[in-house]
Amino acid sequence: MIAKISATENLGGALGYNFKKVERDEASVLCVNELRKAFDGTYRMDKVLSDMQKAIPEKCRTKKTVFHCSLNPHPDEKLSDELLVQIAKEYMEALGYGKQPYIVFKHNDIAREHIHIVSLRVDSEGKKINDRFEKRRSKQITDALERKYNLIPSSKVSDKEEVGMPKVDISKGNIKEQVASVVRTVLKHYRFCSLGELNAILSAYNLAVEEVKTEFRGKKYDGLVYVPTDDKGNKAGTPIHASDIGRGVGYTAVQNRMQKSKQTIKPLVPTIRGMVLQTMRTFPQTEEELRQRLEEQGLRVIIRKNESGRIYGITFIDDKEGIALNGSRLGKGYSANVFNTYFSNPTNNPFLDETLYGSPSARLEQSPTIQPSQSETEEGDNLVDELIEDMVGESFGTMGNDDWKEAVWQRKLRRQSKVNLKRRKR
Q: What is the pLDDT of residues 323-380, one digit of tens each?
């Protein structure tokens, strides 16, 4: 059982999130503690909000007074409401919230049923409930509850099972909440260095991200919108601004995630590169065959084409490690253009070239594709490839990647030549 705890100062937002699901029959109130029922015997948001607000002293120094937690059993568990209530009560008691007002909701909007608990972090005297080592204590409590009730241990829940994310389905409504759930989970579990790589991950959940630039009172702003798509990647719904979802999914947060990812993925690149190289040396005749052989090794591949059928982007995703790598990030010999050339004529396999890729017996991480002395060149090639992948569309379809790369490369050589000439004159 996985517990996810958050602290906030927005009591209305925490309650509103859960009560909206109740209104749509996507959740139900399981139980409450120290809260009154309405006259009709049900629990209404205005009553619960009023009771909780009254329980917070006026001279309270704690800003984030709201405790919001979700308890997530293993997806294979099918627990009764009575057992879920018992688990919630024992969990809150052990964590120190047994005498606090709280309300427990059961969510059934996704296949994996789970519960949410909203409570207060301060008592009637304004004293903060002890939250030292809260997450560590929470893990100890959930482990004990798993043993007591013979539940499937959380250690057996993989990242993908824990995520339990369905695709965004616009026919179900509540699109913003579906999008928010996918985006937050992806940003938490995956590392990527470009929007193209992020889009490759999101495509599995019928979602895409686009960068937007706006101007307000003479000042320019960068932002992101998330767009629901169909199974073919076509836009299927109204774009949702990151600001409408909340903190942690906007332009700055995504940029920070990309910067941090650049360092953390470096040790994993040789392994991914080796898997791709070994697979390509088996001569896959079609893109589908490449997908199948990589999936056997735990890799997914996303191939992007323009309308003329030319491959302009390729991304390799390791869901277990939580990383996405554009082909160009593996090295120059793994760019989209190389794969486009190969699948145009699979009999001519460039991945057999030992002068470029190394011999089969050599350590693949030492492949000449990426050498320390070439780090600057590699970084430049990655940036060029990503720029091309982002820009290629219908308007660039007739020009092709070769022309763009060649032009950029020639400009780079000219700049280097000018620098050398200046040094010689000195």
A: 999 999 998 899 999 999 999 988 888 888 776 676 544 444 444 343 333 333 444 4
Q: What is the pLDDT of residue 233?
A: 84
Using CA atoms, how far apart are residues 395 and 393, in angstroms rounded to an integer? 5
Q: Give, in degrees to the nearest 5, the angle at Cα 271 between 268 and 276.
A: 125
Q: Can you tell me the distance from the alpha carbon of 337 to that of 314, in angstroms, rounded to the nearest whole number?
A: 9
Instruction: Answer whether 368's CB lies under 8 Å from 356's CB.
Output: yes
Taking each helix axis from N to C terminus, what angle separates 251-264 and 175-189, rounded to the nearest 10 degrees? Answer: 30
Interior CA angle at 131 toward 181 and 86, to 5°?
65
Secondary structure of residue 275 in the 3-state scheme: helix
Percent of the chain with pLDDT over 90: 40
The pTM score is 0.53
C-alpha 87/C-alpha 149 separation (Å) is 9
338 CB-near residues (< 8 Å, 6+ apart): 327, 350
Residue 86, φ and ψ in degrees, nearest 5? -60, -45
Is 4 in a helix, a strand, or coil? strand
**The tokens of 372 are what?**
């320390």
Tokens 């593996």 found at = 330
| Nearest partner of 85 among 110, 102, 65, judged by Cα | 102
Residue with tokens 């992007």: 304
Task: Tell me which of 48-57, 79-88, 390-399 is least confident.
Answer: 390-399
* Residue 303, pLDDT score: 93
Residue 37 DSSP code: P
CA 333, 267, 264 angle in degrees (round to 5)? 110
